[in-house]
Specification:
The protein has about 220 residues and is an alpha+beta fold. About 25% of the residues lie in helices and about 15% in strands. The chain has five helices and seven strands, in the order E-H-H-H-H-E-E-E-E-E-E-H. The strands form three sheets. Strands 1-6-7 form a three-stranded antiparallel sheet, covered by helices on one side. The longest helix has 20 residues.
Length: about 220
């Protein structure tokens, strides 16, 4: 809505894809843009359930797992998916959708994830913009301190289980040389004239996606 262009990070982070899916699902179902109308919060929560279900099922390191990014963000898929948002709340866990380009071999990742992330959003006097999110995962990372830096504990961003009880592999399972799926969502927004409008990002582990998506909606829809 409003002709904005939202630029964010690709997989192996799930943040860019999932936050954009969430924002678009919300936009498909909520029109009034009234901050005092509690319906927007309900719609946001339901859109979150749907987008996170897709994230947990499909998103992982693209060098190892085929990523249905175009399918997840396509107009037809989002229209069909948003029709699941009704006056009755979706029962969790929500089942992932079936976008174009999926690999049907995989099961969803339901492992809990810790968080210990820093995010900065900066614009200088010349209009140069940076959104940067870095993570050591859990507090103080791996607790190893080398040349002034704590080494991260990012392996905990993988699924703790490799396969389900019925033997179905999980896309975000541990494999040699594979990048774990993160939730970082550094985001830069341009207006309809291609001018810089907003720079966003957040810490918070898997909460990052909802935080960034919520802030985008508050800025772009409610003009806060």
């Amino acid at each position: 809505r409003g002709g904005y262009t939202i630029c964010s990070v690709p997989p192996s982070s799930s943040g860019g894809v999932t936050s954009q899916e969430l924002v678009k699902l919300f936009a498909n179902k909520y029109e009034s843009a009234d901050i005092n109308d509690s319906t927007w919060v309900y719609t946001f929560i339901e859109a979150s359930k749907l987008s996170y279900a897709d994230r947990n099922q499909y998103l992982a390191d693209p060098k190892f797992v085929k990523q249905p990014v175009k399918g997840l963000l396509s107009t037809s898929y989002l229209s069909k998916r948003s029709n699941l948002i009704t006056e009755s709340a979706l029962i969790t866990p929500v089942v992932a959708g079936v976008p174009e380009g999926i690999d049907t071999r995989y099961a969803p990742d339901v492992s809990p994830k810790p968080h210990g992330t820093t995010s900065i959003s900066v614009v200088d006097r010349n209009g140069n913009a940076v959104s940067m999110t870095v993570t050591v995962e859990s507090t103080f990372g791996s607790h190893l301190f080398v040349d002034g830096f704590f080494l991260n504990n990012e392996l905990t961003d993988f699924s703790f289980e490799s396969i389900t009880a019925v033997g179905k592999p999980i896309a975000n399972r541990v494999e040699g040389g594979k990048r774990p799926r993160s939730s970082i969502s550094p985001t830069i927004v341009f207006d309809k004239n291609k001018q810089l409008y907003a720079v966003a990002g957040s810490p918070g582990g898997s909460f990052i996606i909802c935080t960034v998506a919520r802030n985008l909606i508050l800025m772009l829809d409610f003009h806060l």
